């Protein structure tokens, strides 16, 4: 087997075993979430990252200390340990917003926008890695 083919298989193996989780259903973090509206389409608060956060899997988003986070949902189970939101990328010219979950303990609320009064059931798409 050529060195190139061995290298390619090594990359594929690493991708399958540890890194590439995209395109699959991940375990749910919660069965319910609290949102401002039934579609969880309006941000309920703005927060700022207190520290860098590097996610363990594709359900989560990475955060950099000081980065602004728009929070759309508070996961209801487990005492609101996790929130769902978005951040705008700026690293190396990345312009699109990233969506995902993060621990509530790594951010601080800076502005309340709307009350999270709607309890919404989560579905498989809430935790699907794409």
From TrEMBL:
Cross-referenced PROSITE patterns: SH3
Keyword Nucleotide-binding (UniProt): no
UniProtKB keywords: SH3 domain, Signal
GO-annotated biological processes: extracellular matrix organization
Signal peptide from the UniProt entry: 1-22
Domain of life assignment: Eukaryota
Pfam family, one: SH3_2
Name the UniProt record assigns to this protein: SH3 domain-containing protein
Species, as recorded: Oncorhynchus mykiss
């Amino acid at each position: 087997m050529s060195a190139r083919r061995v290298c390619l298989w090594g990359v594929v193996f690493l991708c399958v075993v540890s890194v590439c989780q995209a395109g699959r259903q991940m375990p749910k973090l919660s069965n319910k979430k609290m949102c401002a509206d039934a579609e969880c389409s309006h941000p309920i608060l703005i927060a700022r990252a207190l520290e860098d956060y590097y996610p363990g899997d594709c359900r989560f988003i990475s955060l950099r200390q000081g980065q602004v986070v728009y929070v759309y949902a508070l996961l209801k189970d487990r005492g609101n340990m996790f929130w769902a939101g978005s951040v705008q990328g700026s690293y190396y010219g990345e312009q699109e917003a990233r969506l995902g979950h993060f621990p509530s303990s790594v951010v601080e609320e800076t502005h309340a926008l709307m009350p999270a009064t709607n309890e919404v059931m989560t579905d498989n798409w809430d935790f699907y890695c794409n």
